[in-house]
Amino acid sequence: MFRFMLSIILTASALAGASPAGALDLPSLAGHPDEGTYRFYLNEEVLVTQDFKWEASGAYEGSYAISMAGQTVSTTMRIEPGPDGSWSRIDMVTPQGLVAVVREDSIARTTHEKETTTTTLKEGTLLFENFSPPLMSAVIRSYDSAKGGSQTIPLFIVPVIVVDATIEWLETVERSIGGQDLRLDRYKFGIPGVDVFLLIDDQGRVVFGDVPAQHGAYVREGYEGLMKPEEVDPLLSKPEFEVDVESNVPIPMRDGTKLATDLYRPRAEGKHPVILVRTPYKKEMNELQGRFYARRGYVYAVQDVRGRFSSQGKWEPFVNEANDGFDTITWLGTQSWSSGRVGMIGASYLGWVQWWAARDRPQYLRAIIPNVAPPDPYFNIPYEYGCFFLLGAIWWADVLESEATGDLSGKAMQEIGKKKYGRILRELPVVELDKKVLGKKNPYWRTWIEHPDNDEYWARASFLDHLEDLDIPVFHQSGWFDGDGIGTKLNYLRMRSHGHANQKLVLGPWGHTDQAMRRIGDRDFGNAAIVDLQRDYLRWFDRWLKGVGNKIEQEPLVKVFVMGSDRWLEDETYPLQATQMTKLYLTSGGSANTSAGDGRLSFALPPAGTPPDRFVYDPGDPTPSPDIPIDPDEMDPSKDDQPSERSIEEARAFNRGYHARVNADRRDILVYDTEPLTDSLTFAGPISAVLYASSSAKDTDWFVRLSEIAPDSTIFQLVEGKIRARYRESFSAPKLLQPGEIYSYHLDLWHTGITVPPGAKLRVEVASASFPKFSRNLNTGGHNEKEEKFVSAEQTLYHDAEHPSHVLLPMIPIKP
Length: 816
Description:
Largest sheet: 16 strands, mixed
Strand order of the largest sheet: 9-10-11-12-13-14-15-1-2-3-4-5-6-7-8-33
Helix content: 10-25%
Number of strands: 41
Radius of gyration: 28 Å
């Protein structure tokens, strides 16, 4: 639920190393003395400055400082070589504490606080660290120029991860720096998920490293002239202005409360369009984006929302944002330096506030870009179709109460990450968990729990039913793995249902981010997944706030990525016009329990008389969330203060195999598979499910998951949907079940896009819990989050001709 600013830098990085006398052969660090300074730029701004000294013996010492939002955090790293020049020890002083890495032949043992992690190194492993660019020169030295082409190298990403990367010589280029002509070799360094394009001088030094996917660049001091100008586009706003910053401007709200706002203004005469960002996560953390837009002729206003950081008032999520957003837009639209045209941008909660402000149609608001924005709170967080989003809600409250997003060092987030949620969240009643996690009663946590129905409280924070007259251009952006992705789907569809023009939609293979990425877990979708979203956002504002005739609205408005075939599909509407909604039916011989059962999926309607499937759902042993691996040690309180040691390989194997083990071990999960496909199958768009089921309980929950199963049995979860039974007809007027009666349940499974190849399968899972992600239904018909007593429920799922339980797939007739 928050945007961590440094996630836009690099997802991985590298350095070179070699072994002391022993079985493992690693490159030497010795023989290449060097010292100097590097800077990492994000767009035009310096974010990181690094100084280093690399001795002829192979000893390396470097320090770097990250400066942003009025904060500076520093890290130092020293590498000690062994007798043969290979690294034997790495010591780091980081904002999160001391880190020591000791190598014993092929084993790297990393210790931080009381935890030790062991990593097995491969032959020829090189080392890499995000903000230590001089060490990339060792990667270049490892390249076999006689062999040429793309070459694979193992990397130890300091301090714990081993991955395979690639390095490839591309060309020799000529550049002029300070009147001196240089011949530089250009390489492509492929780290999993991101490519870095390196320029190497005749001494083998990295003098420039371009990270185009993230608009970042490493630059050695003295080589600033290598920074590329932006792409030549006469219709795109250019970074031509100096920036003036006015901090903590108090903007008055209708009740007299003043909200602190930072204004980034171009140093230029005249009136300028305004871009507004409203955030609960500390406004100064948006400094880099503020400077980006102000350099391009916009006034960028970033505001702490009511009751957060520098703003007055009482903080309560959701409920004040509509009025406060309206009042802020009105103030900005009437200032002497304002053109009267205001836009909004921002991700997650920063996207939410745009919808709340737009709901009441302030006259100066002309366009919005709600990145990864949720829908009405009742349908995503803290509730999702009646189920309480337990883990997400308490984690978000912890982030808010600790003000972790305002801490550049990451210490506060580290403390949150140490908490044993798998154990803590088992305690009942749920309402008391705020004291366990936050150390105190939390008023909005308890208010959320007091309102399990979609009642008047949630109506104050809802907007989906108020969009009929909101005819403004909207750039909807999200990813198939966005934890708030249901919002972009519902928000876009509601705007289109009213016929509003200029509704742009981009859906990629990404998570909860406003940046394009190409990797989720171990799955890499290639360079096609990287699109320049920053440029598209700027073009959107140029068109609607500056009136630039760039014709972005005449390009295909809908663009969705199809995983597997790793391609984009474009159209004017969503779902895509070629979509053929197709039912995939559940069937079995009555024993679909676990992945070893007889559950099957078929495009043919099941015959009459097909026996139902049954299982027992016990809230005392809740069905686990298969996408949230819980380490058994997390459940043992005796291990909390004890030093621990674990293998990173074992941890990865545990995480990768967790979903499959849950499917295999839990009889309270029904599993339905297709036969291995003989032809590829593509679907892209909204997905839903219909279940016909009965329960012995007065109330219960239903969860449905859809996954791709690779030929090697790897599970790639695509979507999940859920519904609390009492809300099957209405979310505002709950109705308990008649035990034993068959009801139909309609579940929203969000959306995805994928080509499933021949030999793979599709899998549908049905369960009555997904813990600890979602709070358990106690099956009593009472208040699930305020009570402690529970009963087991005998669940029956029907899938015959009269009760055709199915998943509805948006099939696309394309070839891979």
